[in-house]
């Protein structure tokens, strides 16, 4: 099997035609669903919020589909395969974060907002400045997240379609096809179509990883300890791309392989952990999903479903990761040097177990994952621009809903085009920090303002603006001057060194700073009569659901 | 918290787009009346009494885990059962507590929050 595996392209496996074929079937099925869903796509509430007609469980599956990006699916399994326990740490932060969404945000947001995060943040503030700020941070978070997904597509193409990185045209065409499909889903299907794509993808992803998990566990007689033992004995050490020798073995089972080297690395990990756990409930594309259900109670059920599905998925990825380093011939060494790097762990494991067919399925699921996540990001960013910036900031709330949706569709095309171009340009860049940055910006620019707006009576417009812009600017500046951008062999710009901030993750500084700026700004700024009166309405609405947006029945 | 303090009758927000439905605009004070009611104060305190301590608890538990992983890797590496070590067990316990808190909150909300919220909602929407 090993000989076949390495025959076509160096380190590549499987049959690209089969991979494309299975992905093509997914595209055909989802396009049919999207076109059927588009029949009732007339009003703004249809386009942005799917008429608020999804049930809690349906939305929960869609949230899982939106949240489990390629970084979660391929990245975490790969990180566990190569770095062992440290990969597992990521998934715990990603899961625990959902409790903030469940306990503090989802229901109250559903009860007060309409389409976007800006609806809630600006509810009792002066509309135009706060909406502009909310839209700015929504666009920044969504763009970084989108860029990471599209650039990740390049690595996937290299691995699964055996188009090498040198073939710019070939990879570029595949990225463009993914981008164009995504635009079609968003334009035709709106939120309803996008949601169905995410539901189908989440079902496939969970089914696919469940099959591999059970398969791996069967090989080891459902003995987790035996699986871990095999992973330890099969991987005594690893030679990194830089030529350094890294001892694996027993180290795979304990924390420290990736983050434990220096005192700075440890603080960096703490910073990452903080951003992961506080970022999720501030991700605009996740928040927008809560508007697609009819009531706050359904929003709660969505989060409960999402937590179970996401938690089970991360347990699967633990088995996938250790399974890959234990069972793939060549283990962690081969995985880290295969095309696509550590992302190749899950696909290589699938090939090892089920040959070309299972690999084809997993490849198709990986592409479907990217497609569904970028569609969700695009509809969120375009809704925020059309609803917050165009309708409320530029037109001061005096637009027909039709023209607002038209602007949203045009924006979706522009964002799609930018994403394709940026994805092609960023193909071989080290973009892992972009996802971490998206979480850090969400945690610093969005979460403090969301929590203050919902729970702190004294909070006002000045506090909101200081917190949003302060969190956003400090995050972006700290990243620019961090080792993720310059000064290290792994940096984006290798030849220059302006990394005066030692951490790759800014969260540890920018999140507390933003919470603090919210407080200082609030006491510096004055409260308007409007804000005081609106607080009563916001608080009562958020807790009781009175006057909340109703579902549309067609 | 002083409910409905210092309210100005002229404080209508004509910039808002969120407040377009009839009813609310004619009788805005219903929200302030409800906010000042003991039933609402009770609902608010029941929500906060659950979610604030629970959020603090899981954040502390999660940060303790992250700190242990960063600064006590030898402790995490202690084997308990075959190759299964303390780190893996604490990590899996994070999953368990997440599922547990989720379930507890749903039970609490169904029993102690939803009925009160519904009563208040009917009162507001009936008055509108």
From TrEMBL, chain A:
The chain crosses the membrane at residues 20-38, 59-82, 88-109, 130-148, 168-188, 200-222, 269-291, 303-324, 357-386, 407-425, 431-454, 466-486, 506-526. It holds the Pfam family SSF. Its main location: membrane. CDD domains: SLC5sbd_u4. It is a multi-pass membrane protein. NCBIfam families: sss. PANTHER family: CATION_ACETATE SYMPORTER ACTP, SODIUM/PROLINE SYMPORTER-RELATED. This is Cation acetate symporter. It comes from Pseudonocardia humida.
TrEMBL record, chain B:
It comes from the Bacteria. Keywords: Membrane, Transmembrane, Transmembrane helix. The chain crosses the membrane at residues 50-72, 84-106. Residues 1-29 are annotated as: Disordered. Pfam families: DUF485. Residues 10-29 have a biased composition (Basic and acidic residues). Signal peptide: none annotated. InterPro entries: DUF485 (IPR007436). PANTHER family: INTEGRAL MEMBRANE PROTEIN-RELATED (PTHR38441), MEMBRANE PROTEIN (PTHR38441:SF1). This is DUF485 domain-containing protein. It comes from Pseudonocardia humida.
């Amino acid at each position: 099997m090993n000989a076949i595996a390495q025959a076509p392209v160096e380190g590549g496996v499987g049959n690209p035609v089969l991979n494309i074929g299975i992905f093509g079937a997914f595209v055909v099925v989802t396009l049919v669903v999207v076109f059927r869903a588009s029949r009732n796509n007339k009003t703004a509430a249809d386009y942005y919020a799917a008429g608020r007609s999804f049930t809690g469980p349906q939305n929960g599956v869609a949230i899982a589909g939106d949240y489990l990006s390629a970084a979660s699916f391929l990245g975490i399994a790969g990180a566990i395969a190569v770095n062992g326990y440290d990969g597992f740490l990521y998934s715990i932060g990603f899961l625990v974060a959902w409790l903030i969404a469940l306990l503090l945000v989802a229901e109250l947001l559903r009860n007060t907002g309409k389409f976007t995060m800006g609806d809630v943040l600006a509810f009792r503030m002066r509309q135009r400045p706060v909406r502009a700020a909310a839209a700015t941070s929504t666009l920044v978070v969504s763009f970084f997240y989108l860029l990471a997904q599209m650039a990740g597509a390049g690595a996937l193409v290299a691995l699964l379609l055996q188009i090498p990185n040198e073939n710019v045209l070939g990879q570029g065409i595949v990225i463009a096809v993914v981008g164009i499909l995504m635009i079609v889903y968003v334009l035709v299907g709106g939120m309803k179509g996008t949601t169905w794509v995410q539901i189908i993808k989440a079902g496939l992803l969970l089914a696919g990883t469940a099959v591999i998990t059970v398969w791996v566990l069967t090989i080891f007689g459902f003995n987790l300890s035996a699986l871990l033992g095999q992973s330890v004995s099969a991987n005594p050490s690893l030679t990194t791309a830089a030529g350094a020798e890294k001892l694996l073995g027993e180290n795979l089972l304990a924390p420290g392989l990736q983050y434990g080297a220096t005192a700075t690395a440890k603080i960096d990990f703490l910073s990452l952990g903080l951003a992961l756990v506080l970022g999720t409930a501030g991700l605009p594309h996740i928040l927008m999903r809560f508007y697609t259900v009819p009531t706050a109670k359904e929003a709660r059920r969505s989060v409960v479903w999402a937590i179970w599905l996401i938690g089970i998925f991360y347990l699967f990825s633990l088995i996938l990761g250790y399974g890959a380093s234990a069972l793939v011939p060549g283990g962690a060494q081969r995985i880290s040097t295969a095309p696509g790097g550590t992302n190749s762990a899950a696909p290589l494991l699938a090939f090892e177990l089920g040959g070309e067919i299972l690999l084809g399925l997993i490849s198709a699921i990986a592409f479907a994952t990217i497609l569904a996540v970028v569609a969700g990001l695009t509809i969120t960013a375009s809704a925020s621009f059309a609803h917050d910036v165009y309708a409320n900031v530029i037109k001061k709330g005096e637009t027909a809903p039709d023209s607002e949706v038209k602007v949203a569709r045009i924006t979706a095309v522009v964002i799609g085009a930018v994403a394709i171009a940026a994805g092609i340009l960023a193909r071989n860049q080290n973009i892992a920090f972009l996802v971490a940055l998206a979480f850090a910006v969400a945690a610093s620019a969005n979460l403090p303002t969301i929590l203050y707006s919902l729970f702190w009576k004294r909070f006002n417009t000045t506090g909101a603006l200081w917190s949003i812009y302060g969190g956003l600017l400090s995050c972006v500046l700290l990243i620019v001057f961090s080792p993720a951008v310059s000064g290290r062999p792994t940096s984006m710009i290798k030849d220059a060194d302006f990394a005066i901030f030692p951490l790759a993750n800014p969260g540890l500084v920018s999140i507390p700073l933003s919470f603090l700026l919210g407080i200082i700004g609030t006491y510096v700024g004055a409260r308007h009569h409007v804000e005081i009166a609106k607080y009563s309405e916001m608080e009562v609405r958020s807790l009781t659901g009175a006057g909340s947006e109703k579902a549309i029945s067609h | 918290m002083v409910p409905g303090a210092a309210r100005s009758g002229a404080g209508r927000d004509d910039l808002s787009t969120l407040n377009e439905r009839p009813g609310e605009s004619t009788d805005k004070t219903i929200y302030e009346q409800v906010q000042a009611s003991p039933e609402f104060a009770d609902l608010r305190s029941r929500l906060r009494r659950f979610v604030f301590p629970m959020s603090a608890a899981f954040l502390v538990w999660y940060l303790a885990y992250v700190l242990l992983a960063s600064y006590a890797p030898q402790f995490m590496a202690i084997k308990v059962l075959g190759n299964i070590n303390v780190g893996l067990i604490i990590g899996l316990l994070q999953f368990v507590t997440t599922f547990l808190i989720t379930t507890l909150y749903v039970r609490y909300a169904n029993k102690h929050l939803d009925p009160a919220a519904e009563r208040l909602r009917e009162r507001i929407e009936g008055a509108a």
